[in-house]
Design a protein that fits this description.
Length: 402
């Protein structure tokens, strides 16, 4: 099959690979895997011109379809059965409709691609209410099938948080176990990065750890930190590969929720300016909330790390499904906005696979579950088992297409 996807706009950040994959899945579901189709993205002005020329309507629309069999071509012999035709989509209109429907832009574009390709195949919703209902029901069915079968083909990176190795050490106030040694074992076992949280109260990770880890980590060092002057100075001094700004309360056992970027807008923006000048990318740990995503983008963050705690702590399957859908939508919204997306908090060997399958999430940060498992099987084995969870989740989601 061949899907030609042409984007004549530059204002909307769309994941072309994801939409291309969804279009190919659609053709396969419709038994048109040997056919060719062109999908063209444009703005309202260009769409309005097509709508006026071909439908005599002086206004833009969301989607137009031009079946190949109905197009006038100079050499009819060039038209083959494999050519379905062209689908034109206004991303400007699609964006407005996505906001109205409270769905992501990719969600709405996928609906319009389905609608447009069904028109190429002869479906029509304007002939009768019965045909309109049949077409609508087919569209819903196809969208669900595409949604359940599209996904990433490679697993996200696994970053291991070694804070709780230091927690065990600090319980006795001596030198063992050493989080620096633990980080090396994690990397050898396949971790793509090491995460450490240098708290103001130094309850687990110490300044000594940060200095040695900066010198010994071979993959990527992600320093979690509050936006306080002394920690900012340390970060600027050691220059980790990236920092993640997190909320911090003295009395909390662990981080309890995402950072409120909206209420801390000015303060966080100043930190990001300093880090950017030093060449240090900044991630912000936030709840899966559209307003917090917008605020993170506005202050100049490179990444957001979505707080998966509510998903991990869900008491029922229904509750977990609801939390997952919020994470899924937030990840896509952040990606569409131009942010890179990570996720973490509370993930374990039972709930990680589903998050690992999200195509817009680059990296998962996992600590407590791995360190707890290491008590029984060793740290090397615990990391390898978590990598298997990520790989299994990715494969399970992807293999549904086979």
């Amino acid at each position: 099959m061949e899907v030609n996807l042409v984007d004549n706009t530059s204002r909307w950040g769309v994941n072309k690979d994801l939409l291309l994959e969804r279009s190919k899945i659609l053709l396969d579901l419709l038994d048109c895997s040997s056919h060719q189709v062109s999908i063209v993205f444009m703005d309202d002005q260009d769409m309005g011109e097509y709508n006026l020329s071909y439908r005599n309507k002086n206004e833009p629309t969301n989607v137009l379809s031009f079946p190949a069999a109905e197009q006038e071509i100079a050499f009819p012999e060039e038209l083959t059965r494999q050519e379905l035709g062209d689908v034109l989509i206004s991303l400007e209109t699609a964006q407005r409709e996505a906001i109205e429907k409270k769905v992501t832009l990719h969600h709405r574009i996928t609906e319009l691609i389905i609608h447009g390709i069904l028109h190429l195949l002869g479906y029509d919703h304007e002939c009768s209410s019965q045909e309109a209902e049949q077409m609508w029901e087919l569209e819903q069915q196809l969208f669900k099938q595409i949604h359940n079968t599209s996904g990433r083909s490679s697993m996200p990176h696994l970053a291991i948080n070694v804070d709780h190795v230091a927690t065990i050490r600090q319980a006795r106030g001596n030198t063992e176990p050493d989080p620096v040694l633990a980080a090396g074992i994690c990397e050898l076992a396949g971790a793509a990065g090491i995460v450490v949280h240098l708290r103001e109260d130094r309850r687990h990770i110490q300044d000594r750890d940060i200095i040695l880890l900066r010198e010994t980590i071979k993959t990527k060092m992600n320093l979690e930190m509050a936006a306080t002057k002394d920690i900012i100075d340390i970060a600027l001094d050691i220059k980790p590969d990236m920092i993640t700004l997190v909320p911090e309360k003295r009395k909390e056992l662990t981080t309890e929720g995402g950072l409120d970027v909206i209420d801390n807008h000015k303060k966080l923006k100043k930190v990001i300016v300093k880090m950017t000048k030093a060449g240090i990318p900044v991630s912000i740990f936030i709840d899966p909330d559209a307003a917090q995503i917008d605020a993170s983008l506005e202050i100049g963050a490179t990444f957001v790390e979505l707080h998966t705690g509510r998903y991990a702590d869900a008491k029922s399957e229904t509750e977990q499904d609801n939390e997952f859908r919020q994470l899924e939508a937030a990840a896509e919204l952040a990606f569409e906005a131009g942010l890179r997306v990570n996720a973490g908090h509370g993930l374990d060997y039972q709930n990680t696979a589903r998050i690992a399958a999200l195509p817009t999430v680059e990296e998962l940060s996992i600590g407590h579950a791995v360190i707890s498992r290491a008590v029984f099987v060793g740290l090397d084995q615990a990391v390898r088992e978590m990598r298997d969870c990520l790989a299994w989740g990715t494969a399970q989601h992807h293999c549904c297409r086979m």
